[in-house]
Amino acid sequence: MAKRDIPEVSAGSMADIAFLLLIFFLVTTTVETDSGINRQLPPNEPPEEDVVIKQKNIFTVEVNRNNQLLVEEQLMELKDLTEAAYKFLDNGGGTGDEACTFCQGAKDSESSDNPTKAIISLRNDRQTDYKTYIAVQNELVRAYNQFRNREFKRKFPGERMDFIQATDMYNDPKTSQSRKDELKEKLTEIKGMIPQKLSEAEPRKS
Amino acid sequence: MSKFKKKKSGDLPAVSTASLPDIVFMLLFFFMTVTVMKDDTLKVQNVLPTATEVAKLDKKNRIMYIYAGKPSQRYQAKYGSTARIQLNDKFSSVEEVRPFILAEIASKPQEIQNVLTTALKVDGETNMGLISDIKQELRKANALKINYTTRKGDVMQNLQ
Q1: A–B: how many Cβ contacts below 8 A?
Q2: How many Cβ atoms are within 10 Å of A158's Cβ, its own excluded?
Q3: Cβ neighbours of A169 in B, within 8 Å
Q4: Tens digit of pLDDT for each residue in B93-119?
Q5: Closest partner residue to B21 among A14, A129, A133, by Cβ?
Q6: Parallel, antiparallel, or unpaired: how do β-strands A69-71 and A74-76 relate?
Q7: DSSP string covering A129-164, please?
Q8: Torsion of CA B22, B23, B24, B26, to 10 degrees
Q9: pTM across the whole model
Q10: Where exactly are the transmembrane stretches of this chain (chain A) (predicted)?
């Protein structure tokens, strides 16, 4: 008896099925935003001792209910904020123990003594928009990052990268452990030289 | 009769579609692997502000999400148009933030309980008053690591 042929299954509809699945996944895919500005909140306990801080070491930034900026008692546009903050941090007006060895600023005696002493104080109104607040935060962080980048490049020219790139490399899981330890030491040193002292006051009610 | 028949010109050969399923499957697998299923249904408007100095967030299981913003269009009739907090799937008041955070912390494995980050996904139009209230609650709950989730982009877009 002749062998009966098994009829071949048609694969013609395979493409249609695959398309159907493809369209389903296309529609359900959402691009998740998983990046942002990291901040550390102060602990809830009130500080025990009163620290006296010289007025010249504080850089005050106020945002009012109309999203206007008041920097050191002067009205300012957002685009000038980074430069003003950078100048303040880089000033290095201190003498003796408080002298800053690496600052390239104006050495104005009315501005900050040393980056380790400099504090940026941010106060906003309860009516301020969140997006303005984020913009101000971003510009202040940018001033810190610019300063840290400069110092990182100057101190470790062999690395051929800046502070941000080094931080990214440190956080990259592909970086080897020995390299990480090496980077951590350098990053900690820069962070010690230029600590990010950004304080936020209670918002004003209006 | 000649042995070599001239082919009729003008008759285009059909393009083979045999590789079409392979191509489509390739695309399919790409989208299958990149798809992340959403855990929460957003009930608030959530246009995040933009920033340039952003850092990547930690692994997903180490993050607690708090949403805030005006209720979406279809909830406005019921909940009004003032900005609200959304925890998990429902609208909440400021007082509910602390119990929520404490419950979230307790639900995570012990090893990562002290490295958790709270991601604030807040609409750009929200007033800072609400956010300060949330931050006060977070301080009381001792969840001090926070992240203002933003899109990457020029900050000047925020001012328009």
Answers
A1: 156
A2: 5
A3: none
A4: 889 999 999 998 999 888 888 888 899
A5: A14
A6: antiparallel
A7: BHHHHHHHHHHHHHHHHHHHHHHHHHH-GGG-S-HH
A8: 90
A9: 0.78
A10: none
- Quote the ipTM score: 0.74
Q: Which two tokens mark B9?
A: 């010109």
Q: Answer whether B40 touches A (CB < 8 Å).
A: no
More confident residue, B1 or A80: A80
CATH fold of B50-159, please? Nucleotidyltransferase; domain 5 (3.30.420)
Q: Which helix (H) or strand (E) holds B79?
A: helix B76-79
Pairwise CA distance, residues B160 & A129, whole Å = 12
Write the DSSP string, B97-142: HHHHHHHHHHHS-GGGTTS-EEEEEE-TTSBHHHHHHHHHHHHHTT
Distance in Å, alpha carbon of B108 to nearest chain A alpha carbon: 20
Residues in chain A closer than 8 A to B37 (CB atoms): 28
Q: In chain B, where are the structural domains located?
A: 50-159
Q: CA B113 to CA B92: how far, in whole Å?
A: 24
